[in-house]
């Protein structure tokens, strides 16, 4: 099981990186959204292997389900024509963006590779120690997760609901039709 | 092929994050830029879950076993709120300017 988990994880990592690259490079946002769903599904498999079954379910339901459907809905609502999707990014800016992100990656990779704690960590697919208490072996399952979330972190949970309420009010206010047409350079 | 190192997973998460950064910097379509932000948020989630899984094997555990995953749930809530408000802004912009191209919107450009 251990080597199977490792192999599956490597495969999902490869597919995820390819899907992420396709999300960034496709011109049509519909393709980007579809590859985003592929990426989220692969992440859900990663979560399963990393002992987070509840998060895997949530990943598929909320990310691949709700959020990406919202994106696709907006894409369909805008109904953009191919000529409206054309981008005019100068090559120099693309090169600068590539250099910036590659530099960031090298910086972070250097930090990860030079951390003795990270490098000496045991294999992530290895079974847990036999003497591990139940709180450790059951971590990530629904019941202990809910227990901790609603007891110890109840305040954070409530604050999250306020945040989402603010987001809802903001979204409704922003999309509300106003009486007069504001400024803007409509190309009609 | 037995060993799945924490560093491999963290490098993978970093790689996806940097792909997202590249997308935000180099694309002009606002929808794709928002998706790249989601990509970055999600790569951070992978890193948090991997670190939490590594903490399970440590003795004594540095954090409560469920703590990292609760953190991820909070990130998820923020990501959902971000998607909602971001897409609402996108629709409002599209209504005024008839475009989703970030290059065409330069009201704040000095």
Largest sheet of chain A: none
* Count of strand segments of chain B: 0
**Helix content percent band of chain B:** over 70%
Which two chains share the most extensive interface?
A-B, 102 and 79 residues
Q: How is the topology of this model organized?
A:
The complex is a heterodimer of chains A (188) and B (110).
Chain A: H1 2-25, H2 29-49, H3 53-78, H4 91-113, H5 116-119, H6 134-137, H7 142-151, H8 154-175
Chain B: H1 6-26, H2 30-57, H3 67-97
Helix pairs in contact in B: 1-2, 2-3
Describe the structure.
The complex is a heterodimer of chains A (188) and B (110). The mean pLDDT of chain A is 89. With 188 residues, chain A is an all-alpha fold. Chain A is globular and about 60 Å long. Chain A is built from eight helices and no strands. Helix content of chain A is 71%, strand content 0%. Chain B is mainly alpha-helical and 110 residues long. Chain B is 73% helix and 0% strand. Chain B has three helices and no strands. Chain B has helices at residues 6-26, 30-57, 67-97. In chain B, helix 1 (6-26) runs antiparallel to helix 2 and helix 2 packs antiparallel against helix 3 (67-97). Chain B is elongated. In chain B, 50% of the residues are buried. The model of chain B has no long low-confidence stretch (mean pLDDT 90). The interface between A and B is large, with 102 and 79 residues.
């Amino acid at each position: 099981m251990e080597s199977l988990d490792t192999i599956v994880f490597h495969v999902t990592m490869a597919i995820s990186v390819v899907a992420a690259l396709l999300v960034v490079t496709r011109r049509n946002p519909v393709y980007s959204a579809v590859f985003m769903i592929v990426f989220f599904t692969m992440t859900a498999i990663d979560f399963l292997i990393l002992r987070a079954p509840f998060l895997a379910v949530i990943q598929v339901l909320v990310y691949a389900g709700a959020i990406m459907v919202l994106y696709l809905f907006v894409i369909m609502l805008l109904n953009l024509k191919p000529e409206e999707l054309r981008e005019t990014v100068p090559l120099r800016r693309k090169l600068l963006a590539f250099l910036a992100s590659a530099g960031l990656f090298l910086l972070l990779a250097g930090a990860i590779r030079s951390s003795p704690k990270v490098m000496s960590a045991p294999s992530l697919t290895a079974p847990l120690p036999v003497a591990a208490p139940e709180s450790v072996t059951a971590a990530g399952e629904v019941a202990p997760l809910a227990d901790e979330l609603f007891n110890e972190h109840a305040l954070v949970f409530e604050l999250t609901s306020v945040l989402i309420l603010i987001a809802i009010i903001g979204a409704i206010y922003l999309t509300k039709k106003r009486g007069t047409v504001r400024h803007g350079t409509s190309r009609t | 092929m037995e060993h799945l190192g924490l560093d491999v997973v963290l490098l993978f998460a970093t790689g996806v994050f940097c792909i997202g950064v590249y997308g935000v910097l180099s694309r002009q379509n606002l929808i794709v830029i928002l998706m790249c932000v989601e990509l970055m948020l999600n790569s951070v989630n992978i890193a948090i879950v991997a670190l939490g899984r590594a903490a399970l094997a440590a003795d004594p555990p540095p954090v409560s076993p469920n703590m990292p995953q609760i953190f991820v749930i909070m990130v998820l809530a923020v990501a959902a709120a971000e998607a909602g408000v971001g897409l609402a802004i996108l629709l409002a912009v599209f209504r005024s300017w008839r475009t989703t191209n970030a290059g065409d919107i330069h009201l704040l450009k000095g």
